[in-house]
Design a protein that fits this description.
binds 1,3-dihydroxyacetonephosphate, eight-stranded parallel barrel, 11 helices
C-alpha cells in the first residue's frame, strides 16, 4: 500500500489583517516539521499574495478558500482560479460547509468549481460532511457519498490525481465538539472504500483524507493515529502559531 505523506492545513477563514497574516506565516516558517508533513495555509484573498510571497522557498503551500467556476467575468466579489493562481495559490479548498450552508454552494456548483480548479492545475481540498441531524438519522455515509458522487461527477481518476478530501462533520466545526477518533476513522474508511469502488484501489490508497472539526493541539495525536486519517484541516487553532506548530508536529 502507498505510504501517504501527512497534510496539516490551516483554514484562516475570514480572519487576519495583512500584518497578522504576515506575522503568522513568518512564525510558521520557523516551526519544526518532524513528520515532514505537507503544510498548507488558506488565508483570506486579501492576504493570499502576501502570504504566498513570504512562504516562497519554505515548506508552506498556500490555498485559496474557494474559487469561482469562471476564469473571469461580471461576478462581483468573486475570485477566479486564474486570479488565485496568479496570487500564488497552489491549492484551493472547495465545498467547505460554510460555503455550502452560508453561501449556497450546491453539489452542482461545486462540480463546476472542481472543473475550474482542475483546468488551472489547482490541487483541490474537497470538503464533505454531515449535519448533526443527518448523523442522528444514520445518513452520514450516504450524505458524504452523495457529496463526492455529485461534486466530482464526470472526472476520471487520472484527472483527479492529487485530490485531497477533507471530512468535516458540520456539528464539529467551531463547536469544540470533535468527532471521536473512532467516528473519524469510520467515515474516512468509508470514503476510501467509496473511492476504491468508483475509481480504483490505487487511487483510493493514494488519496489523502483529512479530518477537520475542532482539531486542537490536545486531540491531534489520537486523531492522526487512525489508519485512514492522513491529516487535519484546522480552523480556530490554525490562527495561533504555537498551537498550529504543535499540530504540525503531531505524535
Ligand atoms: P475549527 O477547527 O475551528 O472547528 O474549524 C474547522 C474548519 O472548518 C476547517 O476548515
Amino acid at each position: 500500500m502507498t505510504k501517504r505523506t501527512p497534510i496539516i492545513a490551516g483554514n484562516w477563514k475570514m480572519h487576519n489583517t495583512l500584518a497578522e497574516s504576515a506575522t503568522l506565516v513568518e512564525a510558521l516558517k520557523k516551526a519544526d516539521n518532524k513528520n515532514n508533513a505537507e503544510i498548507i495555509v488558506a488565508p483570506s484573498y486579501t492576504s493570499l499574495a502576501e502570504v504566498a510571497r513570504l512562504a516562497k522557498g519554505s515548506a508552506i503551500k498556500v490555498a485559496a478558500q474557494d474559487v469561482h467556476w469562471e476564469d473571469k467575468g461580471a461576478f462581483t466579489s468573486a475570485v477566479s482560479p486564474v486570479q488565485a493562481k496568479d496570487a500564488g495559490a497552489t491549492h484551493t479548498i472547495l465545498g467547505h460547509s460554510e460555503r455550502r450552508s452560508v453561501f449556497g454552494d450546491t453539489d452542482e456548483i461545486l462540480n463546476k468549481k472542481v472543473a475550474a480548479a482542475l483546468r488551472h492545475g489547482l490541487t483541490i481540498i474537497f470538503c464533505v460532511g454531515e449535519t448533526l441531524q443527518q448523523r442522528e438519522a444514520n445518513e452520514t455515509i450516504s450524505v458524504i457519498e452523495g457529496q463526492l458522487e455529485n461534486g466530482l461527477k464526470g472526472f476520471t481518476a487520472e484527472q483527479l490525481k492529487g485530490l485531497i478530501i477533507a471530512y468535516e462533520p458540520v456539528w464539529a466545526i467551531g463547536t469544540g465538539k470533535t468527532a471521536t477518533p473512532d467516528q473519524a476513522q469510520e467515515v474516512h474508511a468509508a470514503i476510501r472504500k467509496f473511492l476504491a469502488g468508483k475509481y480504483s484501489q490505487e487511487f483510493a490508497d493514494a488519496t489523502r483524507i483529512l479530518y477537520g472539526g475542532s482539531v486542537k493541539d490536545t486531540n491531534v495525536d489520537e486523531i492522526m493515529a487512525q489508519p485512514d486519517v492522513d491529516g487535519a484541516l484546522v480552523g480556530g487553532q490554525a490562527l495561533i502559531a504555537e498551537k498550529f506548530a504543535r499540530i504540525i508536529n503531531f505524535n
